[in-house]
Amino acid sequence: MGAVPFFSETAEPLATPVVEALGATKRFGSTTAVAGVDLRVMPGESHALVGRNGAGKSTLVSLLTGLSKPCQGEIRFGGESAPPIADRDAWRERVACVYQHSTVIAELSVAENLFVNRQPVRRGMIDWRAMRREARALLDHWHIDVREDARCGDLGVEARQLVEIARALSHGARFIILDEPTAQLDGDEIKRLFRRIEELQREGVTFLFISHHLQEVYEICQAVTVLRDARRILTARVERLPREALIEAMTGEAGGVVCADASRRAPLTGATIALEVQALSGADFADVSFNVRRGEVVGLAGATSSGRTSVAEAIAGLRRPHAGAVRVRTGDGDGAAGITLPHGDVPAALDAGVGCVPKDRHREGLVLSQSIAENATMTLMRKLSRFGFVPPSVKARLAGEAIDTLGIVAQGPLAPVSGLSGGNQQKVVMARALATNPRVLVLIDPTAGVDVKSKEALLAMAERAREEGRAVVVASGEIDDLRGCDRVLVMFRGRIAREFTAGWADQELIASIEGVDLNEA
């Protein structure tokens, strides 16, 4: 492949890049994670870094933040070579990364997090008053509206991200990497975050923006670099790059996300009820009722704070509701016997035939230190075990079938899930949910943080579950996740506000999610 030209300069032609990767290569044994990648981020811009899971984004970030050293090539800041890996203070003065999973210490205050390991000292003791004063001055300087004495564990995701940005700026860094910053934010929170990014850009801060949401690239970024198969495919000005061309650069194929469209299939008739949700109420939702029939897909849409996730978690036993009932029919016919699930009991939900892909694969979906085989068969332990022991050959066989069915890219069933890309990790979570042959499949943000092709594979498995006669519940804020739904229930402030049948218009659904009436005069 010849040299790939740069088209991303957003400043003067002779301006010095804030950061450069020059022919950066990183190998792990026989695997090349990054191969001769060039990246140039100019002062004051938001530069998007996109690509499928496994394309090399995380490895490149580790090189740009000094967590690892390139095998070949060079990292430069402001035209000068990067500091030695061991000089962490010098790296903090140049670059910081705000990760999708917050690195603030929940038990400490905002001020303590801002100055952790460098608190002001007076007479050999921490000067708490000076630390709070300096924290307030720092937050005011960067117009970050967070109390310095607030406990970080009590802050929302948006506020925690701003604290991390303020901490980076306090070290002197003016180049900040944002890794999937909107993954856990709703519409209003995303708009506020983008406003803060734009304000910080005007004050001289430069961002590298990593996201699987391509719409966000066009909203907030001026330039974009695409990685595919460990190599840089292109760098371009965002306004000059059509979306179809961006997707093609990421995937090597033309077109967008290919997923089932419920409006194109025949209406469901004569199917029996598989799941009943009756007057379910909890901390952030109230009086939620709906049924799902066999072979039907029902979506739960709404903002992050709407209660959609909590309702789905209550169905799967991951959350204990205050009142109401969840009932799973165990036979055919609307008069068939059913099981009323005890509240907040995951084993009981599994035994009744409820499989679940939880919202956070790292905290609830996987044991990262274990293999694909261990993770994919975790829900089958009581069925497979004899005297508390499951033969490894049985686990490996079942995991091998899951690898083939879901297209998991791995060396084999014994490969640790920690070494898989995000998309392949999510496929393992899906395999675990399907392993029990569930009657009801609950999917919570099933494609969050995965690339286009992994998204297609996961949505195809949901469609296959529907074709096999399972009842499927999809709780998601992603429009593509909801296209395969026969019905979409929009939740607003904890209640079902509206129901859409297949064939809805994107604009109308989004307006309902945001609480806007398009028909209002």
From TrEMBL:
Assigned keywords, A-Z: ATP-binding, Cell inner membrane, Cell membrane, Membrane, Nucleotide-binding, Repeat, Sugar transport, Transport
Superkingdom as given in the UniProt entry: Bacteria
Regions crossing the membrane: none
ABC transporter domain boundaries: 19-254, 268-518
Keyword Lipid biosynthesis found: no
Molecular function terms, GO-annotated: ATP binding; ATP hydrolysis activity
Matches recorded under CDD domains: ABC_Carb_Monos_I, ABC_Carb_Monos_II
Cited SMART domains: AAA
Alphabetized Pfam families for the sequence: ABC_tran (PF00005)
InterPro entries, alphabetized: AAA+_ATPase (IPR003593), ABC_carbohydrate_import_ATPase (IPR050107), ABC_transporter-like_ATP-bd (IPR003439), ABC_transporter-like_CS (IPR017871), P-loop_NTPase (IPR027417)
Protein name: Multidrug ABC transporter ATP-binding protein
Provenance organism: Trinickia dabaoshanensis
